[in-house]
Amino acid sequence: MASKKLTWLPDTWDMVFSIKTFIAAMLALFIALCFDLPNPYWAVTTVYIVAHPLSGASTSKAVYRLIGTAAGGAMSIVLVPNLVNAPELLTLAIALWVAGCLAISLLDRTPRSYGFMLAGYTTALTSFPLVDNPATVFTYTTSRVIEIFVAIICAAVINRVVFPRHAGPVLTARIDAWLRDASGLITAALDRRPEDATLVRTSRRLAAEAADIRMFTTHVSYDTSSHSDLVGASRELQGLMITLLPVVSGLVDVDAELARTGYEHTSAVAKLIVDADEWMRTKEPMSADRFSEFVAPLQELETEVQSSSRWQDLLLLDFVARLRDLLQIWNECAGLRHDIASGSRSARKMHSSGLAQATTRPTHKDYGMALFSGFAAALAIVLGTVFWIMTGWSSGAGAPVIAGILICFFAAMDNPTPMIRKFTIFSMVAVVLSFVFVFAVMPVLSGFSSLVLALSFLFLPLGVLIARPSTFLLGMALSANIPTMLTLQSRPSFDLASFLNTNLSTILGTLMAIGIAAVVRSVGAEWSARRLLKAAWTDIASVARKSQKRDPQALLYTMLDRLSLMAPRLASIAEGSAVIQADMLKDMRVGTSIVDLQGYKGLLLADQRAAVDEVLDAVASFYMERRRRAETRPASSLLQAVDAAIDTVRAPVRSSAAVRKVLMALVGLRHNLFPNADQLHDIEPLALREAAE
Q1: How confident is the model at residue 693 (pLDDT cuts 50, 70, 90)?
Q2: CB-based burial of residue 371 (10 Å sphere; 0-12 exposed, 13-18 middle, 19+ buried)?
Q3: Closest CA to 140 of 116, 118, 119, 123
Q4: Between the CA of residue 528 and those of 378, 417, 524, 536, 565, what are the distances in Å?
Q5: 44: number of CA atoms within 13 Å, CB side?
Q6: Are 617 and 601 in contact (CB under 8 A)?
Q7: Residue 348 has pLDDT above 80, yes or no
Q8: Whole-model pTM?
Q9: How many CB atoms lie within 10 A of CB 62?
Q10: Half-sphere exposure of residue 256: CA atoms within 13 angstroms, side-chain side
Q11: Residue 7: which residues within 8 A CB-CB, separation 6 or more?
């Protein structure tokens, strides 16, 4: 029982973070008051919004916030003076600007997306309060940018100078944990347990974590530690991590197919697998010469069977290629991890033949949902403004602003309604705390030092809440609302009517956001996951129908990014769903096989090329039909087309590297799409057929 209670206590770093954030906030407030800025509480709010336990993450958030605020303020200066006499057009222009910025933010999906979103709602935040006094728009907007700039400098300086906590060591720890879990996945894969459901679940989780680590690396680039110089190595490592997962998954499939043929690994290969398991647990890289010696049994086995056209030997060639790729990728992962941990880049020569050297690393972009989310934010602003105008409420401008901001904040969620509902409850708590502080505490304060002392009892606990992931939303909702509700200014106001009007408008805006999110924006996790699957299937069909050469790594990144987006959604989907049964890693392997067929078919003979084209057409038709009906299974005609193409391509005794590539791609297609099909018959070698004739 005691240990359970202790988990609720903040650790040392949580308390250090809270103290540093409070010091930065009070310093920003002091500077804003000294220069008589109109809204000093914006500086306090900004410090807590950009606050992060890691100095690099805090700096990156601060930079994006400054850029977004400046862009949003500039748009206010353009819109308000020109459209103030046409409230309908002004409202529509602000709503469309917010919608467009939010859509771009959702499509970007990197830490800099915060800047795009902020540029949108800053325009609403600085425009609506000025419709009665448009002449002050430049001064008002400029002061907001200055107050935020002051807050950003204070937060960055304090976070970097006072007990800085660097992002580099955290990145190293996350990479170590990922590699540890990945080595367990590889061990299970090589133990010939293809039916183990944990393999699929672990692969999905590792894909999601790899994508999250990739996003986290952006913060490391702003760090002050030596790790900031190794961002390039970190991104290379993440590319290898992404590439590793489909290789492991493919190895499981081909090894299972080999087992079905009755094949047992030779003693040399079996020993190599055992040694590989032990080596991967150490996470230590091998030199190029040592690695060549290590994989020598694979080279010997490949030499023995590379001239054979037997089905089992073709599978064996596929297995050897995948296992070699796996070991090469792991060795490079270990080398890059060593560089990141040591803080210096070694001169080690990489030798993975460019497996993870993608020319581009695209991510999934859901244009439909981005536009739909933008529409929801625009609708919140329009409806809130209509309510404000119809009621003639002097403080009503806050309602459309808050409604739009909340829709933007939680737009990345399938169903933002529960989170907005929590935020509303926390905002009400902030109103109560602010009321007590304004009318019971502030009147007895005398001077800035007493104000700081009183605020410490309120904000130091909030800083601890922000530092802990489980209480982050509560801490952020309170710390972002309370400074505004307190109206921390050089000449504080104790007007009860003004306090109630302003905060009632805030609460009304949150309630409007709940209603709009529930009616317009909320979708189910299964619905979103199905869209991701359909997008992947569309890509595969498109690649199969287009003859131009495609970058296989670009397809790999896009599909694994979709897998990372699916992983958290699958936990809330019923087991019987077709989405749960789908295996996007398998679809991705089919896609890379298709890319190989398209890339090398031009080097084949005419009859071989025709057979490959028939396979490509059949694959495209299957995946387009699967888009319409997710439960669709590959037809027997597709199996016949693949078998016919394999027989056509494997017939010649002397085959080029291109023919071998095509053959391996066809073999991969067969055991991926038809894992339970009968073994492919072995054809008679050409020399024996000629002798018989």
Answers
A1: very low
A2: middle
A3: 123
A4: 22, 16, 6, 13, 9
A5: 27
A6: no
A7: no
A8: 0.82
A9: 26
A10: 20
A11: none
